[in-house]
């Protein structure tokens, strides 16, 4: 538990700083314009909370698969915070430099929440990854497959951000209105040339997150954890 807490110090610091900046804005402007960020931060924290449960309970088998699916469903909520920066163009009440700092901090917090949860989930799958499914394959091939899995996850995350920001669907709509959201998704996937914005948005966010995650992972985890994807 203590080791897990130490690994999440940067998440705690970024979250606390985001809340402090938001509280300062509310106090200084006497408005609640950006308080929706609190809800977005809570949604962004859900993937990490799920990953913490997976790690602490050392889940395996079908339970790990089930929790991983729920984690993937909520994962786009974390980097979604990046897109809140668009509000700076039409929200008044505080200096632009302050709002820029506040929104940048929450965006950074969202990325760290996403990356930390993904690292935990990847470590949880490591047992199956190396000792069961791909034990016969060379290490280089295993790593290449790991990179491919990461890219697929980030592509799904990029699409999830687009679904939330542009199409305005929510994570729980997959339960309350799954027909509508699936129809929207498949319409864009089956007609990519008619939905260039969807493809561009998805690929750009996926590529950016993939590159940043690799840099973050190598910087903070390469020496400590070498075998997780």
Automatic annotation (TrEMBL):
It comes from the Bacteria. InterPro entries: DUF1361. Keywords: Membrane, Transmembrane, Transmembrane helix. The chain crosses the membrane at residues 9-28, 34-52, 64-82, 94-115, 148-167, 195-213. This is DUF1361 domain-containing protein. It comes from Polluticaenibacter yanchengensis.
């Amino acid at each position: 538990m203590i080791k897990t807490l130490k690994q999440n110090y940067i998440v705690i610091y970024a979250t606390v700083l985001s809340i402090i900046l938001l509280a300062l804005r509310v106090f200084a402007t006497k408005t609640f314009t950006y308080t929706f960020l609190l809800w977005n931060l809570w949604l962004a924290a859900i993937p990490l909370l799920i990953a913490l449960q997976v790690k602490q309970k050392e889940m395996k088998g079908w339970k790990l698969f089930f929790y991983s699916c729920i984690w993937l469903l909520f994962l786009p909520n974390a980097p979604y915070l990046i897109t809140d920066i668009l509000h700076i163009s039409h929200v008044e009440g505080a200096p632009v430099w302050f709002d820029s700092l506040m929104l940048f901090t929450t965006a950074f917090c969202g990325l760290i929440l996403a990356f930390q949860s993904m690292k935990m989930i990847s470590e949880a799958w490591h047992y199956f990854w190396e000792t069961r499914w791909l034990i016969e394959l060379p290490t280089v091939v295993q790593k290449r497959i790991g990179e491919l899995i990461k890219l697929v996850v980030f592509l799904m995350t990029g699409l999830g951000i687009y679904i939330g920001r542009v199409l305005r669907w929510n994570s729980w709509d997959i339960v309350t209105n799954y027909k509508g959201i699936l129809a929207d998704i498949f319409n864009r996937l089956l007609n990519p040339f008619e939905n260039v914005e969807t493809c561009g948005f998805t690929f750009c966010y996926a590529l950016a997150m993939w590159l940043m995650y690799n840099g973050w992972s190598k910087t903070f985890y390469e020496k400590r954890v070498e075998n997780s994807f």
